[in-house]
Amino acid sequence: MRTRLISTAVAAGAAAAVVLAPTAAEAAGAIQIYRVYYDSPGKDTGSNSSLNAEWVQIKNKGSKARQLKNWRLRDKNGFVYTFGTFTLRAGATVTVRTGKGSNTSKTRYWGRSWYVWNNTGDTAYLRFPNGSLADSCSWGSKGDWKYC
Fold first, then answer.
1. Phi, psi dihedral angles at 145 (to 5 degrees)
2. What is the pLDDT of residues 64-108, one digit of tens each?
3. Measuring CA to CA, how many Å separate 131 from each of 75, 79, 84, 99?
4. Closest to 85 in 3D by CA, of 115, 110, 60, 105
5. Which residue ranges does the record assign to the LTD domain (predicted)?
6. What sign has the CA pseudo-torsion 140, 145, 147, 148?
7. Other beta carbons within 10 Å of 59
8. How big is the CA angle at 32 (ends 34 and 145), to the nearest 5 degrees?
9. Residues 6+ away with beta carbon under 8 Å from 3
10. Got the DSSP string for the chain?
11. Residues in Cβ contact with 47 at an 8 Å cutoff, skipping those fewer than 6 apart
């Protein structure tokens, strides 16, 4: 009798696991690259205002706030921005600007003195603290920005 109960419980658990499997949309992840503005307006002068017109928006599409400490944003060439202690509210976006400025809850600054994102095509990678890929967004040479 006991063997039969355990077998039934295992079978029921397996059925529940199938029912509870995440959909493809749920498995994609709550934190995603939302938009990239890779070609700041005007000439690439390297001024701080021009650098800050180049940015990446990251969105929390989930229903819970997420801590982004040690998450990394990088390009194909290996330029890396690492988040410090930072919480992204549910449904909110944060803009990571290339130049210098004072960090807020909606805008983070990379602090670079030259551009990161290539106007002729590039890829933005968003990585978890353990290094695995959370999301990416690629573009070619047409346009100034892209929704991902």
1. -150, 170
2. 999 999 999 999 999 999 999 999 999 999 999 999 999 999 999
3. 14, 15, 15, 24
4. 105
5. 19-141
6. positive
7. 18
8. 25
9. none
10. -HHHHHHHHHHHHHHHHHHTPPPHHHHT-SEEEEEEE-S-SS-----HHHHHTSEEEEEE-SSS-EE-TT-EEE-TT--EEE--S-EE-TT-EEEEESS-----SSEEE---SS--S-TT-EEEEEE-TTS-EEEEEEE-SSSSEEE-
11. none
CATH second-level architecture of 28-147? Sandwich (2.60)
For the chain, the residue count is: 148
Whether 10 has a pLDDT exceeding 80, the answer reads no
Domain locations in the chain? 28-147
Which residue's structure tokens are 């800050």?
Answer: 52
Structure token digits, residue 42: 């005007």
